[in-house]
Amino acid sequence: LQNAELGKRAPRWIRDNEVTMCMKCKEPFNALTRRRHHCRACGHVVCWKCSDYKAHLEYDGNKLNKVCKDCYHVIMGCTDSEEKKKKGILEIESAEVSGNSVICSFLQYMEKSKPWQKAWCVIPKQEALVLYMYGAPQDVKALATIPLLGYTVDDTPRSADLPHSFKLTQSKSVHSFAADNEELKQKWLKVIHLAVKGET
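That's the FGD4 protein sequence above. Prediction below.
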């Protein structure tokens, strides 16, 4: 929702399973300590610390509702546009980065001998030589970044169970990825082949 509409219209609730961390302070949720709360103004999933604010929401008959810190400031009329300017891509919501990306999708990812894990991968337009990895499409902070310049691309699959895999290597660092199908793999390779040479 745009700032002007906050509290006037009911938000779309982001589902719990779409995020792995608080959408405000980026604390990871875990089963024991972090209960998930929804901001009643923007619909974001936040932790208890970030949902400790209340504001009167027009769409709910001006009743007091739990809201996140950001919405509280907007509804109460404080501005924090300065904060937004200071943020780098790492701190911008994945959904925002994905919407303005060269390519984005889920890929399986493996580093060293760790098990494969699913990651939401994005190459943003404004930094087309960097691959950002998020835990989920709505997360607000990237888990890792790979500056692609200078990497070598190896697109011969290593294992039969992940036939659409490819590898990025540079001296000692090796990042393995696997797409769900050959078409997606080729799309990623097209972009990555350019990025490792410094082209976009």
